[in-house]
Amino acid sequence: MKNVLFSGVCTALVTPFLDGKVNFPMMEILLRRQCDAGVKAVVVCGTTGESPTISDDEKLELFRRCKAYAKDDCLIIAGTGSNSTEHAVWLSREAEKCGVDALLVVSPYYNKATEEGLFAHYLSIAHAVKLPIIVYNVPGRTGVDIPVSVYKRLSRIPNMAGVKEASSSITKIAEIRSACPEFPIWSGNDDMVVPTLALGAQGVISVLSNVAPVETDAMVQSALAGDFDTAAALQCQLLPLIKLLFCEVNPIPIKAAMKLIGFDCGGCRLPLTSLSTENQKKIAEYLAI
Hints:
Layout: E1 8-12, E2 17-18, E3 21-22, H1 24-36, E4 41-44, H2 56-70, E5 75-79, H3 85-97, E6 102-106, H4 115-128, E7 133-137, H5 139-142, H6 148-154, E8 160-165, H7 170-179, E9 185-187, H8 193-198, E10 203-206, H9 213-224, H10 228-245, H11 252-260, H12 277-287
Parallel strand pairs: 1-4, 1-10, 4-5, 5-6, 6-7, 7-8, 8-9, 9-10
Antiparallel strand pairs: 2-3
Helix pairs in contact: 1-2, 3-4, 4-6, 6-7, 9-10, 11-12
């Protein structure tokens, strides 16, 4: 297998807002909490970080500040995906200048690129930077499920570090492992972490760990150590919370949950709206247990 960028938990961090602007002091608090919990890496400006409504200037400032604050306590992985290859290349180069440790690049959305287009997109970014690149496959958001044949080709590119697979298909995980066993996989689904790890994945890029970093790490570390009885029990124990965190589109519920546990990260930027009163009550009742 390639040199693995990290094994364990990577948190897809929310982006905190205050009065419509990025709340950088709260971002430092969130980062410190993750580092103290033993989380190995964080994604800044991923899906959970509301990347579609964060400006390029805001993203670059977040990348710079997060890396300066985290130092070597955890990896800073910058979300630099775009449905424009030219824009993704530019943003990836600028993120590299900010000193981040790696990139998370979602597949082009809306365009519905062909297999050849997907490969050319990632190849262009890989040639533009020296940083490790994690491919992000989330067909429920992008409209395209990256085929295993594309992963096989991408796995031969030196700085392609692996894939965050969020297709919700355990069969797809097995197919990737079979076709390119040297290509690291991180689960992109909190409800499938332990099954994915059982097939040889390296960890999870998680929404859940925003709220429960210690518990998420315990689950993943148990599985990585081969203690699947404990890992499975923890997966089942966390499942009700995971379901609540996806009761509406991410990151609406996770931001509400963060406020309930004492980390007010503000609301989401439109077109995302506030969590419904009914679901707010359900999450509040669960977190009060």
